[in-house]
């Protein structure tokens, strides 16, 4: 079973990645990807968080896996939105 501390740390990492990516998404939407490097880094952060969630799920109990699954869905949804945003 994953420890509560490791779960909390991972969830915080995911939430930080989501906040940063949402900021980059809004900037990209409003400014037509003025900061490509930040946008790319945000996508990479989401992917890293997603991969870390998958690893943690291997040692998580059922309740923890459910929490990780919900977070994974949030990450995927934001990744998809960022990928399909038109790039001028």
UniProtKB/TrEMBL annotation:
Q: Does the keyword Coiled coil apply?
A: yes
> Which InterPro entries did the record assign?
Uncharacterised_YtzC
Query: Keywords assigned by UniProt?
Result: Coiled coil
Q: Which residues form a coiled coil?
A: 4-81
Its protein name is DUF2524 family protein
Q: Which organism is it from?
A: Cytobacillus praedii
């Amino acid at each position: 079973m994953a420890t509560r501390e490791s779960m909390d740390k991972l969830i915080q990492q995911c939430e930080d990645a989501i906040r940063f990516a949402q900021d980059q998404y809004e900037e990209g939407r409003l400014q037509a990807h003025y900061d490509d490097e930040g946008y790319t880094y945000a996508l990479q952060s989401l992917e890293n968080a997603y991969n870390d969630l998958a690893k943690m799920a291997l040692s998580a109990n059922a309740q923890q896996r459910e929490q990780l699954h919900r977070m994974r869905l949030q990450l995927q949804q934001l990744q998809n939105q960022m990928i399909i945003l038109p790039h001028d």
